[in-house]
Specification:
The protein has 156 residues and is mainly β. Helices cover 10% and strands 43% of the residues. It is built from two helices and eight strands; from the N terminus they run E-E-E-H-E-E-E-H-E-E. The strands form two sheets. Strands 2, 3, 4, 5 and 6 form a five-stranded antiparallel beta sheet that branches. A hairpin with a 6-residue loop joins strand 7 and strand 8. It is elongated, with a radius of gyration of 20 Å.
């Protein structure tokens, strides 16, 4: 049986886009790092900063980058002792890697209802441009209304 789900739309003048930027130190562990397809990954220190509507967050130290995002301070790199402590028998540890990540969300209101859904960079940027004038946006929601796929300005 084939079920088709369509995308729904919503028009709103109440919205806020956020981009959570973070740095995380990770180390891969495996019996053989070069041949093991699924090494175990341990997470060490993380720092993050919440960007709202493109405005510089007070705790941001780097930015804006080429995507208009602000970044936190780097977390402390794990020491050799910390990396070795998480080693299991017969495993070797890789070098600590600094991973950059961004999670986008859009909170919007329609009537008395407020929704917060995951979104993407393009929607975030559209909100950043529309936010100063509170221009109405037409949102295209993803499958089962579980995400915001598109935001377009509504001409008055």
């Amino acid at each position: 049986m084939l079920t088709l789900t369509s995308c729904s739309t919503a028009t709103t003048e109440q919205y806020e886009a956020t981009a959570l930027t973070s740095y995380t130190w990770q180390v891969k562990y495996a019996n053989n790092l070069t041949s093991e397809p699924q090494p175990r990954i341990e997470t060490f220190a993380t720092t993050s900063v919440l960007n709202r509507n493109g405005v510089k967050p007070s705790e941001a130290v780097v930015g804006p980058d080429d995507r208009g995002l602000w970044w936190p301070t780097l977390p402390p790199r794990p020491s050799v002792d910390e990396v070795e402590q998480r080693n299991k028998s017969q495993e070797e540890a890789g070098k600590p890697e600094l991973v950059k990540d961004v999670k986008y969300k859009l909170t919007y209101g329609v009537g008395n209802a407020q929704n917060t859904l995951p979104t993407n960079y393009e929607v975030y940027r559209q909100v950043v441009k529309a936010y100063p004038t509170q221009q109405a946006l037409q949102l295209t929601l993803g499958v089962n209304d579980n995400s915001v796929e598109k935001a377009e300005p509504v001409s008055k």
